[in-house]
């Protein structure tokens, strides 16, 4: 009989993940400012994010794999084996989450501050390392505080309802583990997940609306933009000549005219940079290839917008279900089972009948969230409140910006599991498990044949018949974080709808959108040419 270890086949291959991360980082990395340490850090952090996202489908697969379709456990899946599998998944989570804590609170901050110091001071390396470590101590302190709070925070779920369901939830959490060390780690990761929720609201929600509409609209023609740019150059040059003609008789220009000349010359330099970039893009093979597959991009755009609307509707119905049927804020809006079904929750049980379509769909959804997050970050850049810190651009992204991007993706991936749970709560909790229910047939009021029928696992199932995924228990270990996630889902829906309206109202993007700006501080005129040729 095949062992559950075969589920490892569902995990994305590590070499494929590393190759993708290397290509992605090199695609956006500045050719002038690339550094070995920052490149390795960015690739490693991005790989950890992708591998962590794969744990959810594997967790669901393993709990489902232990049972047959008729609701009985497989021969090899006795109590000890089941416990070993659950523990293995749990240790997998904690190993990857420990690596994420290491990346977020130590490695990435240290490398970031090291390069900040390197730009300001080209002195000895030892001084730069000391200064970077000094700043990193602040992050280490925050991590230590979170671990200490998590080790001693009260975990009791405030219960206003003495129902068997809530007793069952408490029992599940007791089985999950009461170790102070595991609880401390769980609290720290949950705190980062809340930050990931804010990043998802900002970047993923916008990316889900901007990505498909950008694919549908396409970009303006490079030839057309060159024509407009040439006209702008001529106009600025004529304006400059008119102003400079005032001093032909030896009279100095007024301070106002000098400022205008300075602004126009800066504008002219920007326009000439645009001219060089547009010329480079117009002649590149990549532009011709993109024009050839334009119909395919439109099809993908339509598909992505349908998927985004499906997700939004499912998320809305799931949140509405919690608002109407959960015990409220004091319980973290935890709900066992579903009262209002949603399209995704209806689709997954149908796909369960054909292995492995349901796991392919879950993996696709996870990857969709990651790629829309990447699109959102790329389109918006990296902001700190209203201050734009960095831009993400092909071949011209600074090392610090790449480190920020990878840290944001790490945090968003942490929140992805809860997003999937919100879309398909019943499936994330039990997978495709079924359990046996006794059915008594009566004839003339007398019980006759006693039969057993299989039923999808739910909150009414006996404790020893259905195994809850470790993902579900991890997400709901702290009720106050669950409450924050609930309100975050409403904010996510609102930002998506606003982003959809804004994206619909905006015109086509420039073919060199974000590549040439007047406020660029990390511009290199040859980098785009190197990228395209």
UniProtKB/TrEMBL annotation:
<dbReference type="InterPro" id="IPR050854">
    <property type="entry name" value="LMBD1_LysCbl_Transport"/>
</dbReference>
<keyword id="KW-0846">Cobalamin</keyword>
<protein>
    <recommendedName>
        <fullName>Lysosomal cobalamin transport escort protein LMBD1</fullName>
    </recommendedName>
</protein>
<feature type="transmembrane region" description="Helical">
    <location>
        <begin position="182"/>
        <end position="206"/>
    </location>
</feature>
<dbReference type="InterPro" id="IPR006876">
    <property type="entry name" value="LMBR1-like_membr_prot"/>
</dbReference>
<feature type="transmembrane region" description="Helical">
    <location>
        <begin position="91"/>
        <end position="115"/>
    </location>
</feature>
<feature type="coiled-coil region">
    <location>
        <begin position="254"/>
        <end position="281"/>
    </location>
</feature>
<keyword id="KW-0175">Coiled coil</keyword>
<feature type="transmembrane region" description="Helical">
    <location>
        <begin position="298"/>
        <end position="317"/>
    </location>
</feature>
<comment type="similarity">
    <text>Belongs to the LIMR family. LMBRD1 subfamily.</text>
</comment>
<keyword id="KW-0458">Lysosome</keyword>
<feature type="transmembrane region" description="Helical">
    <location>
        <begin position="401"/>
        <end position="421"/>
    </location>
</feature>
<feature type="transmembrane region" description="Helical">
    <location>
        <begin position="359"/>
        <end position="389"/>
    </location>
</feature>
<dbReference type="GO" id="GO:0061462">
    <property type="term" value="P:protein localization to lysosome"/>
</dbReference>
<keyword id="KW-0812">Transmembrane</keyword>
<feature type="transmembrane region" description="Helical">
    <location>
        <begin position="6"/>
        <end position="25"/>
    </location>
</feature>
<dbReference type="Pfam" id="PF04791">
    <property type="entry name" value="LMBR1"/>
</dbReference>
<feature type="transmembrane region" description="Helical">
    <location>
        <begin position="37"/>
        <end position="58"/>
    </location>
</feature>
<feature type="transmembrane region" description="Helical">
    <location>
        <begin position="478"/>
        <end position="502"/>
    </location>
</feature>
<keyword id="KW-0813">Transport</keyword>
<dbReference type="GO" id="GO:0005765">
    <property type="term" value="C:lysosomal membrane"/>
</dbReference>
<dbReference type="GO" id="GO:0031419">
    <property type="term" value="F:cobalamin binding"/>
</dbReference>
<feature type="transmembrane region" description="Helical">
    <location>
        <begin position="135"/>
        <end position="155"/>
    </location>
</feature>
<keyword id="KW-1133">Transmembrane helix</keyword>
<keyword id="KW-0472">Membrane</keyword>
<keyword id="KW-0170">Cobalt</keyword>
């Amino acid at each position: 009989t095949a062992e559950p270890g075969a589920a490892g086949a569902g995990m994305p291959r590590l070499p494929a993940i590393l190759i993708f991360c290397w290509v992605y980082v090199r695609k956006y990395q500045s050719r002038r400012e690339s550094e070995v340490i920052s490149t390795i850090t960015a690739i490693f952090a991005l790989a950890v994010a992708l591998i962590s996202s794969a744990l959810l489908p594997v967790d669901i697969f393993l709990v489902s794999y232990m049972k047959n379709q008729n609701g009985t456990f497989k021969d090899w899946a006795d109590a000890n084996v089941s416990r070993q599998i659950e523990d293995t998944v749990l240790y997998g989570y904690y190993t990857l989450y420990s690596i994420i804590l290491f990346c977020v609170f130590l490695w990435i901050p240290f490398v970031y501050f090291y390069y900040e110091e390197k730009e300001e001071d080209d002195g000895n390396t030892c001084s730069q390392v000391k200064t970077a470590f000094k700043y990193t101590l602040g992050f280490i302190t925050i991590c230590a505080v979170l671990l200490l709070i998590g080790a001693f925070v009260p975990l009791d779920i405030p219960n206003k309802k003495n129902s068997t369901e809530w007793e069952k939830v408490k029992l599940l959490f007791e089985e999950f583990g009461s170790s102070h060390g595991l609880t401390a780690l769980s609290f720290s990761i949950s705190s980062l997940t809340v930050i990931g929720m804010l990043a998802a609201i900002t970047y993923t929600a916008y990316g889900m609306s901007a990505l498909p509409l950008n694919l549908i609209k396409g970009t303006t023609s490079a030839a057309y933009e060159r024509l407009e740019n040439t006209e702008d150059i001529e106009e600025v040059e004529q304006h400059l000549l008119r102003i400079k003609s005032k001093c032909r008789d030896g009279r100095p220009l007024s301070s106002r005219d000098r400022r205008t000349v300075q602004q126009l010359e800066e504008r002219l330099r920007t326009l000439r940079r645009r001219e060089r970039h547009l010329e480079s893009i117009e002649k590149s093979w990549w532009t011709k290839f993109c024009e050839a597959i334009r119909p395919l991009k439109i099809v993908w755009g339509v598909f992505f917008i349908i998927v985004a609307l499906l997700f939004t509707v499912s998320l809305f119905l799931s949140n509405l279900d919690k608002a109407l049927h959960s015990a409220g804020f004091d319980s973290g809006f935890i709900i066992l089972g579903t009262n209002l079904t949603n399209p995704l929750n209806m689709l997954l049980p149908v796909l369960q009948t054909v292995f492995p379509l349901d796991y392919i769909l879950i993996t696709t959804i996870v990857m969709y969230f990651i790629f829309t997050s990447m699109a959102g970050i790329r389109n918006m850049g990296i902001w700190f409140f209203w201050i734009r810190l960095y831009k993400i651009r092909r071949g011209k992204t600074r090392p610090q910006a790449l480190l920020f991007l990878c840290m944001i993706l790490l945090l968003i991936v942490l929140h992805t599991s809860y997003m999937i749970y919100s879309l398909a709560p019943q499936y994330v909790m039990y997978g495709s498990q079924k359990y046996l229910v006794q059915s008594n047939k009566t004839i003339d009021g007398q019980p006759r044949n006693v039969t057993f029928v299989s039923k999808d696992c739910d909150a009414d199932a006996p404790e020893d018949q259905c195994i809850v995924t470790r993902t579900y228990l991890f997400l709901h270990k702290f009720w106050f974080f669950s409450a924050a996630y609930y309100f975050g889902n409403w904010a996510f829906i609102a930002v998506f709808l606003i982003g959809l309206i804004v994206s619909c109202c905006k015109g086509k993007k420039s073919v060199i959108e974000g590549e040439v700006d007047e406020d660029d501080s990390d511009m290199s005129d040859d980098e785009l040419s190197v990228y395209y040729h």
